[in-house]
Write a structure and sequence with these properties.
The structure holds 2 protein chains of 2 kinds.
Chain A: H1 3-25, H2 43-61, H3 87-107, H4 109-123, H5 129-150
Helix pairs in contact in A: 1-2, 3-4, 4-5
Chain B: H1 2-12, H2 15-33, H3 39-53, H4 56-81, H5 90-101, H6 105-140, H7 143-161, H8 166-180, E1 183-184, E2 191-192, H9 206-224, H10 226-230, H11 235-238, H12 247-269, H13 274-289, H14 292-297, H15 303-319, H16 321-327, H17 333-344, H18 353-356, H19 358-387, H20 394-413, H21 417-434, H22 440-463, H23 468-471, H24 473-506
Antiparallel strand pairs in B: 1-2
Helix pairs in contact in B: 1-19, 2-4, 2-19, 3-4, 3-17, 4-5, 4-6, 4-15, 4-17, 4-19, 5-6, 5-15, 6-12, 6-15, 6-16, 6-19, 7-8, 7-13, 7-22, 7-24, 8-22, 9-20, 9-21, 9-22, 12-13, 12-15, 13-15
The chains are: A mainly alpha, B mainly alpha.
């Protein structure tokens, strides 16, 4: 089964969970006064559930349109040759983003941003550290200044124990 | 009206107010370029500065300059990085980014600058002419019509964004609407679909979702397939010669600009519609009326596809000032913040604004012309330098794009959990793109979801049920139109498939 149909199947499953919450769990908590209303908080989600399941089934069971033919477009990812792409680098960057989210507060903005920019470039194959590190430090410092001092949005620059 | 223009000119053309126009445009453009910071957040940040000025005319001139600048700056990041920080410039990236990848970043930015200028200026002229009359038309729209209008907008977006895959686009629209219902609803203030998580109490943030749908998958695709970056950007896009547009190109986009200035302005006037719907509808309409090869070109770097949303969103920005200035009703989130700023400055927008403080009303309109002119003068010479962003090596550029994506989402909420949500949605969006699902309908469904539900609920309460569909002919007409928009392309696709099958069988 093609990936788009797997996604349609997952979407129908999501609609079922969403619909279960809308049909069976939400109305119980409704205060009696609101029950006299023609529209309840669950009304719109119920409509969405029904429409979602119908549209999901249409995508799942409609015959796929014949491909345009010809060579694959330039720069487009061809799923059948996924192994040929730098999937490892992409996964590495995703892990790095999660690590950034988790270290932003404990390490402080400047430290975690410099680490993120340097490690991100290293994952992509950059080895010119004499350019990379100053660029990362200047960028992190100037963005912190712009956000904190000019725009007035609080960003803790250093780890909590130094502040 | 002549008297009004003269009052406006004398109030706006003072050295201090001119400085405010220039300052507003520069600040708006620079900050608007950062993905994640849209006009709403920039205006919110600038409010203390504006109140500090004290003079309501100068303050409003500064804030409207920031507004225009931010919309223009947002289109720059849409074109160069495919990272629209503002919902109104999402449609700009459909053709602007493919143009940048083809090495025409300079030309794309020039077209965006000219289209924005034309849209904004024509919008300002229309505002001057129609402001009083339009306010009475907008008043005719009830919540039932707003609901139907939004359904039409969503159907049009699904019908045209799907390029023959209407069901897939509809599925994405519905997913967007479902994501929009997460959090506290306006109906009863009870949390819905939060699964007990406090972080979901206020729902998903629009900026996080926008970043996850557009910037993150694009960056990941660039990482996975370096040919994607090499096929477009690089040295060629940095060339200054790339920014010239030919006479033939100018002739082909002129009617688009004319049509979309009008359409965008009138959509902008309707409260709740605003720049986002205007830009998507503008794109959809132009795509639908384009013929043959030109229609094929949409989504792959069509200059018409770039000019249409750019003109429409700027014209709609001007249009959204009509309900604010004449009725005191903000038409969009941004004008709502402007309304707050005006009230803080002791100016009450509404029907009496034109008679009580005509200098404020007219000075703002005159400053719109000036602002658009300043934006054009400011941006055209800077385009070659802005386009240089694409010549930065990808080992430096990609971590920076990812970093701006993370920052955009973090600054909106000041919450690190938002970053984890961003990564999660980014992975889902990348998988959806692998399977060729259009992502724009998802985002627009999410943005319109809350407004759609509120208007639906209001109409249901007023008519004690679904009777509003039958009792209001305009609502019924709009809903039938929405149905046709979805059914017709599907039927055409079905016929084409049958015909192709017939030919294949004949062989």
């Amino acid at each position: 089964m093609a990936l788009d149909r797997w996604i349609a199947l997952a979407f129908i499953a999501l609609c079922c969970i969403y619909g279960y919450a809308a049909f069976f769990t939400m109305d119980g908590e409704l205060p009696p006064i609101l029950q006299r209303n023609p529209v309840w908080p669950s009304t719109f989600p119920k409509i969405l559930t029904v429409m979602g399941i119908v549209v999901g089934l249409i995508v799942l069971f409609t015959k796929k349109a014949p491909a345009d033919g010809g060579a694959p477009k330039d720069g487009v990812i061809d799923l059948t040759r996924l192994g040929d792409y730098h999937v490892g680098q992409a996964l590495g960057l995703l892990v790095l983003m999660v690590a950034y989210a988790l270290t932003l507060r404990p390490l402080g903005f400047v430290g975690s941003t410099v680490c993120f920019l340097v490690l991100g470039a290293i994952i992509l194959g950059e080895r010119r550290f004499h350019i990379l590190i100053p660029v990362a430090v200047i960028a992190a410092g100037s963005i912190w200044y712009l956000v904190q001092e000019v725009l007035g949005i609080f960003l803790r620059p250093w780890p909590g124990m130094f502040m | 009206m002549i008297e009004g223009i003269l009052i406006g000119l004398s109030a706006a053309v003072t050295p201090f107010n001119l400085m405010m126009v220039v300052m507003g445009c520069v600040i708006g453009t620079l900050i608007g370029m950062l993905p994640g910071l849209g006009p709403m957040s920039i205006i919110a940040i600038m409010i203390p500065v504006a109140i500090g000025i004290g003079d309501p005319t100068a303050a409003l001139i500064l804030l409207s300059g920031v507004y225009y600048g931010a919309i223009f700056g947002g289109s720059t990041s849409s074109i160069l990085l495919n990272a629209p920080g503002v919902a109104g410039t999402v449609a700009t990236s459909f053709d602007g980014y493919p143009m940048a990848r083809k090495g025409q970043a300079g030309k794309a930015l020039t077209i965006a600058a000219i289209a924005s200028f034309a849209g904004g200026t024509i919008g300002a002229i229309l505002l001057m002419i129609f402001a009083p009359a339009l306010s009475s038309v907008a008043l005719l729209f009830h919540s039932a019509e707003y609901f139907a209008l939004m359904v039409v907008g969503l159907s049009a977006i699904a019908a045209f964004a799907g390029t023959g895959q209407v069901a897939k686009a509809l599925m994405m629209t519905l997913l967007g609407l479902m994501l929009g219902t997460v959090g506290e609803g306006a109906l009863s203030n009870t949390p819905r679909f939060t699964f007990g998580m406090m972080d979901l109490q206020s729902g998903f943030s629009f900026i996080t979702l926008a970043m996850a749908m557009f910037a993150l998958p694009e960056a990941l695709f660039l990482v996975m397939n370096p040919a994607r970056a090499a096929s477009g950007s690089g040295a060629e896009s940095g060339k200054i010669t790339g920014m010239r547009i030919t006479r033939a190109e100018a002739r082909s986009i002129a009617p688009v600009i004319g049509r979309q200035s009008l359409q965008g302005f009138f959509i902008g006037v309707l409260p709740g519609a605003g720049a986002t719907i205007a830009s998507f509808l503008g794109y959809a309409v132009e795509r639908n009326i384009a013929k043959g090869a030109e229609q094929e070109e949409f989504g792959k770097g069509s200059i018409k596809g770039l000019a249409a949303p750019e003109t429409a969103n700027n014209a709609a920005c001007t249009g959204s000032f009509v309900p604010l200035l004449t009725l005191g009703i903000p038409g969009s989130g941004t004008t709502a913040i402007l309304l707050g700023a005006l009230l803080a400055l002791n100016v009450t927008p509404g029907p009496r604004l034109m008679t009580d403080t005509p200098e404020v009303f007219w000075a703002v309109i005159i400053s719109m012309y000036l602002g658009n002119l300043v934006l054009l003068i400011l941006n055209l010479p800077l385009i070659p330098y802005i386009a240089k962003i694409l010549t930065i090596p990808r080992t430096f550029l990609i971590p920076f794009i990812l970093f701006f994506t993370l920052m955009g989402s973090y600054l909106g909420q000041n919450n690190a959990t938002e970053l984890l949500i961003l990564v999660g949605f980014g992975v889902i969006a990348t998988i959806l793109r692998f399977a060729d699902y259009p992502l724009a309908p998802l985002l627009i469904g999410f943005i319109l979801g809350t407004m759609l539900e509120n208007n639906f609920a209001r109409a249901m309460q007023l008519y004690r049920g679904f009777d509003f569909i039958l009792e209001r002919p305009m609502t019924l007409g709009l809903l039938v139109l929405a149905m046709l928009l979805v059914v017709l392309p599907s039927y055409r696709g079905y016929r084409a498939r049958k015909r192709a099958q017939g030919i294949a069988d004949g062989d």
